[in-house]
Write a structure and sequence with these properties.
The complex is a heterodimer. Chain A is an alpha/beta fold. Chain A has helices at 10-22, 44-48, 65-68, 128-137, 151-162, 183-195, 293-309, 380-386, 394-400, 405-413; strands spanning 2-6, 27-32, 71-75, 78-82, 87-90, 95-97, 100-103, 107-109, 122-124, 143-147, 166-170, 199-201, 206-211, 218-222, 227-230, 232-235, 239-241, 257-258, 270-272, 277-280, 287-288, 321-326, 329-335, 344-350, 355-362, 365-372. The longest helix of chain A has 17 residues, at 293-309. Chain B folds into 2 domains: 1-52 and 117-145, Alpha-Beta Plaits; 55-112, Alpha-Beta Plaits, CATH 3.30.70.20. Chain B contains 5 helices and 8 strands. In chain B, 43% of the residues are buried. Classes of the chains: A alpha/beta, B alpha+beta. Chains A and B meet through helix 7, strand 22, strand 23, helix 8 and helix 10 of A and strand 2, strand 3, helix 3, strand 6 and helix 5 of B.
Chain lengths: 423, 174
């Protein structure tokens, strides 16, 4: 079997390793279009903080790793997929024929539709090349404007603050991290940032970016008339699945590549994984682009299994979850954190200590959660949600005191207590 | 022979010796907040449950790590955090459905049980045999089976306390 993988992010690399495991005789070709060895975008904030060097972001640390597994890593950009001829064409000539194709081409930041986004000094924070540009311009005392206070915007705040820049965050919506936190939690993150010297403007839209004469080379113009001088503008206004090269291939796409419960695309022997795949969501059963690290890895593993062993087990869906560190305030959200119709909730709100827990139930099952300032045993939230654990009497106890999460978890999933079920 | 920690809540008295031993062995201080094993209290039932990583085979934390900082230790079967590679992204803390990987703000890295490299101090410190380090085949199959079949459980059988080396203190003769 000839396996070809487009994209050398976590989904592609994990899939390549699994394909080697399941098909020892086959060929595995991994095509990536960035010059560096496969690396993790998750590690970028820590590179910006100088906690690690570029090799610290690499997905696999041993330089001989891919050779040892006989994974052929080639650098190139795929321009078209010919599903009938079973081959992919590379920019600058060259073709790769496949028996099974995995598309894990990831996502790209969306540039906001405003004049001036192509000026020098305006960039995203997505690739190692972006990081090098940011490091060049984000010096102590320089002014940085961050457009977008979503996940990516918030996770690089600390790194930028640590570089000693004067930071302004502009967010279109009415709160920070609107797709991960509710108004209470988002407000808490905002207050936390402001108390640490970051200027936050929510419900605020950037009209244009223009070149300026004077101390700062750029000026960010907001609706309403304000102008913020900037040495560097970072756009973090969301990402879009990389599906453009599939136009005309017959592979159906919406927000991402449409896949079924086996991660198979609409044409035979083509699969998709990670940020480019519109895969099944655990909570709703709907097909969505989650664009998160755990889902990329899970997709990669599962797709490799279906590619080599056939479609045996339908995927139940991946759980949407995020963990975010904003200037030291750790927040996490799981599954249906916004709640469900006809459901109940529990809340612990301690704004003075920046602690917040919000639990969402359907009947006596946890279906979503948000937590701020909780770093111990936070994974039990996933365990309870994904296990669809019936909480029984523990639902009431959690509503009275949401911090008793681990007790609820242990009591409902494991035999706990005197002579419990064993002796 | 691979061994694993066997946790038996019904034998736990909540003395917290395990947390003390763990933090002292791994961090050099007696500080339960830095322990990789935690004892949870159940006030209503008057019972306690020691709880730590089960070193699951297809470890969620290990697979979710984006920088290969959680690795399989072939000598002990544990999944170990490599501090020099961990960037502190915390993805493992939400990926682990058992909630046994914790983030530490002071180090900016995560911590989890690594079986003390094959000589777990919690087990040595436990005075009641609630934490034992046993053949991996003896860790919980009976427990899991009983749990899976609960409701139809048959009569109870007494689990004899396990003699432990740690309890044989050497004292200088007077």
């Amino acid at each position: 079997m000839r396996h070809v993988i487009i994209g050398a992010g976590p989904a592609g690399v994990v899939a390549a390793e699994q394909l080697r495991k399941f098909d020892p005789q086959g060929t595995v070709t991994l095509i990536g279009d960035e010059p560096e060895p496969p690396y993790s975008r998750m590690a970028i904030p820590y590179l910006l903080m100088d906690r690690i060097g570029e090799p610290g972001t690499y997905l696999r640390k041993d330089p001989g790793h891919y050779d040892e597994l006989r994974i052929d890593v080639i650098r190139g950009r795929v321009t078209t997929v010919d599903a009938k001829a079973r081959s992919v064409a590379l920019a600058g000539g060259g073709k790769q024929s496949y028996d099974k194709l995995l598309i894990a081409s990831g996502a790209t930041p969306i540039a906001p539709p405003i004049p001036g986004v192509d000026l020098e000094g305006v960039c995203a924070c997505w690739t190692l090349a972006d990081v090098r540009k940011i490091i060049e311009r984000a010096h102590k005392g320089s002014s940085v404007v961050l457009i977008g206070a979503g996940f990516i915007g918030c996770i690089i705040l600390e790194a930028l603050a640590a570089r000693g820049v004067k930071l302004t965050v502009v967010e279109l919506e009415d709160r920070m991290v609107p797709r991960m936190l509710n108004a209470t939690a988002g407000g808490m993150v905002r207050r936390w940032c402001e108390s640490r010297g970051v200027s936050v403007r929510v419900s605020s839209q950037v009209r244009a970016i223009e070149g300026a004469k004077g101390a700062a080379p750029l000026r960010v113009l907001l609706e309403g008339g304000d102008a913020i001088p900037a040495d560097l503008v970072i756009q973090a206004t969301g990402v879009r699945s990389n599906t453009g090269f599939l136009d005309g291939s017959g592979i159906a796409t919406e927000r991402g590549i449409l896949v079924n419960e086996f991660l198979a695309a609409s044409v035979p022997d083509v699969y998709a994984a990670g940020d480019v795949a519109q895969g099944r969501d655990f909570s709703t059963g709907a097909y969505v682009v989650q664009a998160i690290q755990p889902t990329a890895v899970e997709h990669g593993r599962i797709a490799a299994m279906h590619m080599t062993r056939g479609h045996r087990h339908a995927q139940r869906g991946t759980l949407n979850m995020n963990v975010l560190d904003t200037l030291g305030l750790v927040s996490s959200s799981f599954a249906q954190w916004m709640g469900v119709k006809g459901g109940d909730s529990a809340e612990l709100n301690d704004p003075d200590r920046f602690r917040y827990i919000n639990l969402q139930f359907q009947d006596d099952v946890l279906v979503g959660a948000t937590a701020l300032g909780l770093t111990d045993h936070v994974g039990v939230l996933r365990g309870l949600i994904q296990g669809k654990t019936a909480l029984g009497p523990w639902k009431k106890k959690l509503q009275a005191d949401p911090t008793r999460l681990v007790e609820a978890y242990l009591s409902t999933t494991m035999p706990v207590g005197h002579n419990a079920y064993v002796i | 022979m691979l061994r694993a920690l066997k946790l038996e809540p019904e034998k736990c008295t909540g003395c917290m010796q395990c947390e003390m031993a763990c933090s002292y062995e791994n961090e050099g201080v007696f500080n339960p907040a830095l322990s990789r094993i935690k004892v949870f209290e159940f006030h209503e039932q008057g019972s306690f449950a020691p709880y730590t990583c089960t070193q699951c085979e297809e470890a969620w934390c290990m697979h979710a790590c984006p920088v290969e900082a959680i690795v399989f230790n072939p000598a002990t079967g544990s999944k170990d955090v490599l501090d020099d590679l961990c960037v502190g992204c915390k993805v493992c803390t939400i990926a682990c459905p058992f909630g046994t990987v914790n983030y530490r703000a002071d180090t900016g890295k995560v911590m989890k049980c690594d079986l003390c490299g094959g000589d777990p101090w919690c087990a040595k410190a436990c005075p009641t045999g609630a934490i034992t380090y046993v053949d991996i085949a003896d860790t919980g199959l009976a427990r899991m089976r009983a749990w899976a079949q609960r409701g139809e459980a048959t009569s109870a059988r007494f689990n004899a306390p396990v003699a432990k080396d740690a309890q044989n203190f050497d004292r200088a003769k007077a």
